[in-house]
Amino acid sequence: ETFMNTPVVKKTFPPGWKAEGKDCRCLPKINVKDSPKPYSDRVLFVGDSGVSRLYKDGIGAAYRTSKAAASAALFHGVSDAELKQHFWPACKNLKTDNTIGKLIFLVVSLLQKPRPVRKGILRMVITEQEKTNSSKIMSSVLWDMFTGSSPYREVLFRTMRPKFIFGLLWNLIAANSPFGGIPQHKETP
Questions:
Q1: Integer Cα distance of 158 and 100 in angstroms
Q2: pLDDT at 91
Q3: What secondary structure letter does DSSP report for 47?
Q4: Which residue in 142, 153, 171, 185 is deepest, having the highest Cβ count within 10 Å?
Q5: Which residues pair with residue 49 across a beta bridge?
């Protein structure tokens, strides 16, 4: 409801349009916690029962941890010590990336609140989408945050690049200045 009632979203619907009751009724379960130790002597957990990617592709995480599990078991052994040395690093890498993801989602939730910041981000995305031969750094950051196409670590590093920082600052200023504002998105034929 909060999303549907934002002015930017309301503007996309026909004048006078009202939602009829609750439009979304799905309540999916999603794994957001990892197993503290997804292995033991001759036992290990992969995918959602072990370590998965925060809000992302459980199948991809299951593949990565399964690959690490198979490699550890076939080439090194299945003892607690062998799994710690050869299976745990893949799990730890996912856990570290999830920690970075939690930080990013916290920052994003804080940035969504102030209207001037939302306007700047929207302006940056619209401007990027209008250009054909430019890097779409904000668009790619948002895409990767919502789809999981890249690890959170890569997304974080992209937002630390001077081009991203200066582009965001410029769009924050331009979107909120009396002479700037948010450009109207042009429909492609």
A1: 13
A2: 93
A3: G
A4: 171
A5: none
For residue 120 the two structure tokens come to 């700047």
Phi, psi of 34 (to 5 degrees): -100, 160
Rg of the chain over Cα atoms, rounded to whole angstroms, equals: 21
Task: Specify the DSSP class assigned to residue 6.
Answer: S
Residues sharing a CB contact under 8 Å with residue 117, sequence separation 6 or more, in sequence order: 111, 172
pTM for this model (two decimals): 0.74
Name the β-bridge partners of 39.
44
Which residues are within 8 A (CB) of 175 and not within 5 positions of it... i.e. 6 or more apart? 116, 119, 120, 122, 123, 181, 182
In single-letter form, the type of residue at position 142 comes to L
Measured in degrees and rounded to the nearest 5, phi and psi for residue 19 equal -75, 145
Q: Give the model confidence (pLDDT) of 110-165 as tens digits.
A: 988 899 999 999 999 998 988 877 788 999 999 988 887 889 999 999 999 999 99
Q: What is the largest CA-CA distance in the chain?
A: 67
Structure tokens at 166: 């200066």
Give the burial class of 186: count Cβ atoms within 10 A of its Cβ; 0-12 exposed, 13-18 middle, 19 or more buried.
exposed
Q: Tokens 């990336």 correspond to what residue?
A: 97
Quote the tokens at residue 165: 């920082």
**What integer pLDDT is reported at residue 23 of this predicted model?**
58
Of 161, 154, 174, the closest CA to residue 93 belongs to: 154
